[in-house]
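Worked example 3. Consider a protein that binds ribose-5-phosphate.
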Amino acid sequence: MIIGGSPVQALAAQLATAADRQLGTVVYDRFPDGELYARIDDPVPDHVVLVTSTVSSDAHIEVLQLQDALREAGADHLTTVLGYMGYARQDGAFEPGAPISARAVARAISTGTDEIILVTPHERAVQEFFPVPTTVVDAVKRLAEPLPPGLVDPLFLAPDEDATTLAATVRDAYGTGSVDACAKTRHSASEVTVRPAEQPVADRDVVLVDDIIATGSTMSEAVATLDTDGAHRVYAACVHGVLAGNAYTKLARAGVESVYTTDTVEGPTSSVSVAPAVVDALTA
Ligand code: R5P
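Given these inputs, the predicted complex is written out as structure tokens:
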């Protein structure tokens, strides 16, 4: 049986179809004082796959509730799939007195499950924070699927050095094009500057590839730079389209042609599902 957390109901349905398993019904509600309430409305088999994305503090509470409800209902083996793992970027104590938040949430989520599947975490090393067996699934190559065919002399561009492998993966899946990376300097949580890559971009189609679009500052800065440098069309592709606040507006104003994201964070830009990649891990 596949059980979906409230933020990823479409992904849960895709996963149920792809894995040929029953999609369980969950009631998501809230008490008058604001506390969450979640209830499984179907008989529960021995092995259950719970899929969610911890996109908010509420989603963190909900995953703990659903794990507990599933155990209570008789699930003997529980696999928890984190499509998007919130707090994963807080993977170190960056100043004295700060927590390693990724470790804190990993420990909490691990208490209610037998194993974890993580979809394209910001850093692979975050899996070490989970005290239960944890598998990383890389869904980046799926971002090639929604790209238009016949891109003009395509350049797959990482907005920073760290994303170069992701850009190369999408290029390989698309089948043609070159790969390069910009240089990014982060000044604050929402302020970055992006310097152009070495490869010329004039009259070329450029596909920017990253793991996350959060505030949209990184991508919109990169789009604006490419626009100034004469790129033909600029696309933005990422696995986790968090798109916080006015991120989409920033991208649109910068001149992006289209934004492609997966269903780990459901929204208007979710154009491809990570379900097949998760099914591969479930059946491995
Ligand atoms: C950072 O290293 C990540 O790969 C992304 O580039 C970053 O999280 C994007 O954040 P934002 O959209 O807020 O610039």
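Take a moment to read the result before moving on. The chain has seven helices and 15 strands. The chain has a mean pLDDT of 96.
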